[in-house]
Design goal:
The chain is mainly alpha-helical. The chain has a single domain, classed as Up-down Bundle (Rhopdopsin 7-helix transmembrane proteins), CATH 1.20.1070. It is 73% helix and 4% strand. A three-stranded mixed sheet has the order 4-3-5. A two-stranded antiparallel sheet has the order 1-2. Helix 1 crosses helix 11, helix 4 packs antiparallel against helix 6 and helix 4 packs parallel to helix 8. The longest helix is centred in the middle third of the chain and has 34 residues. The radius of gyration is 21 Å and the shape is globular.
Length: 311
């Protein structure tokens, strides 16, 4: 590829999480542990919610989508990251970098919309319990999930297309452990103000828009919970939302920290740790958060285990 009289780079170099050689092996072991735990937990959620009839509800339909997303979310960056921990050559081809950036952005945007869909499900369950099955019918659930995936893909496609319009022919060292959009934009040999503006605007639409609607939704949910006459009823209603609230807080906290700063796109060590948290650690924690105190999942797991033993 040629940009003017310059040839576009064929590969980039990923600096990684840290340049300290004595930290590479320990970090490899830590990230590998997180990755394996995330895969096991999310695959388990998908299998249980598919096999157990007691989990064939809208809540676990969306949770299954979230688990499927988290598997690919971490898999889009962690395998290459693990290889680079133990490798001298930390290069990634231009095409692979673009693909990694597109996939990661797509799944990140999709998660924002999925978390909003899950909030709406909790709103229907608590604010309109008598009409819950009518409101959250399978067709609507499929439409919400499909819309979430399409929204994430469209958002990523726009950013990726804009990024590909820029020339890359001088700098090839990415100050990150994967091809994240702000890090790639730093290497462009042209003005990136338009890209930064588009990134900020879409961050408001894709990140802050769903986040604001989630907050509004929980305002109605809390109002309904307060009106419940018994303390047991209030506690039970709140417990159905607690896991989702924790997941939303963990995910959006780090996302907002990284993408909602209109000033500079310079990547710091704090940005890397925040990205590691929402890209690797949060997908590992999600299955634990949704299962540790969830009687339905524990019961479904026990049922599946008994059926496996009996056969």
């Amino acid at each position: 590829m040629v940009a003017g009289n310059q040839t576009t780079l064929n590969e980039f170099i990923l600096l990684g999480l840290t340049s300290e050689l004595n930290m590479q092996v320990p970090l490899f072991a830590i990230v590998l542990t997180f990755y394996i735990t995330s895969l096991i937990g999310n695959i388990l959620i998908i299998c249980i919610s598919s096999v157990s009839t007691r989990l064939h509800t809208p809540m676990y339909f969306f949770l299954g989508n979230l688990s499927f997303l988290d598997i690919w979310y971490t898999s889009s960056i962690v395998p290459k990251m693990l290889i680079n921990f133990l490798s001298v050559n930390k290069s990634i081809s231009f095409d692979a970098c673009v693909a990694q950036m597109f996939i990661h952005l797509s799944l990140g945007g999709t998660e924002c919309y999925l978390l909003l869909s899950m909030a709406y499900d909790r709103y229907a369950a608590i604010c309109s319990p008598l009409h819950y099955t009518t409101i959250m019918h399978p067709v609507l659930c499929i439409k919400l999930a499909t819309g979430s995936w399409m929204g994430g893909i469209i958002n990523s496609a726009i950013h990726t297309i804009f990024a590909l319009q820029l020339p890359y022919y001088r700098l090839n060292v990415i100050n990150h452990f994967f091809c994240e959009l702000p890090s790639v934009l730093e290497l462009a040999c042209a003005d990136t103000s338009v890209n930064k503006t588009v990134l900020f605007v879409f961050a408001i639409l894709v990140v802050m828009g769903p986040f604001f609607l989630i907050i509004v939704t929980y305002g109605f949910i809390i109002s309904s919970i307060i009106r419940i006459s018994t303390s047991v009823g209030r506690r039970k209603a709140f417990s159905t939302c607690a896991s989702h609230i924790i997941v939303v807080s963990l995910f959006y906290g780090t996302i907002i920290f990284i993408y909602m700063r209109p000033g500079s796109i310079h990547v710091t060590n704090q940005d890397k740790m925040a990205t590691l948290f929402y890209s690797v650690i949060t997908p590992m924690l999600n299955p634990l958060i949704y299962t540790l105190r969830n009687k339905d999942v524990k019961g479904a797991l026990a049922d599946v285990t008994r059926r496996m033993i009996s056969t």
